[in-house]
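Field log, afternoon session.

UNIT: design team B
ACTIVITY: writing a sequence onto a fixed backbone
BACKBONE:
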């Protein structure tokens, strides 16, 4: 099945998805998505398959809304990020209470710059552990403090869990366990 540029644009807009987000999901840059939508660049067969999966799975967005509600209502300090970009997608009230800035200051932005040295090191080890291939779905480790004034991280144990979202992207549920 061949998808026209107009079809890509229509499906993307129906899902309220920006070109940049679709580019991130497909591992390309925003300019590539723009060229696809103007029929200036053909999709590779692999890209077409991934694009179909992304657009086909979006009809289950209600599941993401339920996940967001569960996170926001959790009594534990937990937040959800995009596994690729580290953009903050949702956070519980106990997690927000740890921060010295409102949720709106972080929501939709990468929060990796606030990572402690242990979090950054663990992130670097994910490839060799098979995280991105889905061979490892959960990981618990010790973290130290990050000494950041607006988004402090206290020393403790953290669990990361991989969650596939309705748009085909992978989220990471981050839970402080002590």
């Amino acid at each position: 099945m061949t998808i026209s540029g107009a079809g890509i644009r229509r499906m993307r807009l129906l899902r309220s998805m920006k070109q940049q987000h679709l580019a991130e999901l497909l591992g390309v840059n925003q300019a590539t998505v723009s060229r696809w939508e103007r029929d200036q660049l053909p999709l590779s067969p692999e890209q077409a398959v991934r694009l179909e999966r992304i657009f086909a799975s979006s009809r289950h967005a209600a599941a993401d809304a339920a996940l967001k509600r569960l996170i926001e209502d959790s009594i534990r300090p937990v937040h959800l990020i995009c596994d690729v970009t580290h953009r903050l997608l949702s956070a519980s009230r106990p997690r927000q209470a740890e921060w010295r800035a409102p949720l709106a200051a972080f929501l939709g932005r990468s929060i990796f710059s606030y990572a402690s040295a242990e979090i950054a090191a663990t992130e670097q080890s994910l490839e060799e552990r098979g995280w991105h291939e889905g061979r490892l779905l959960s990981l618990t480790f010790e973290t130290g403090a990050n000494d950041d004034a607006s988004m402090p991280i206290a020393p403790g144990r953290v669990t990361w869990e991989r969650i596939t979202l309705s748009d085909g992207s992978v989220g990471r549920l981050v839970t402080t366990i002590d």
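LOG NOTE: The chain has two domains: 5-56, 60-176.
NEXT ACTIVITY: expression trials, pending approval
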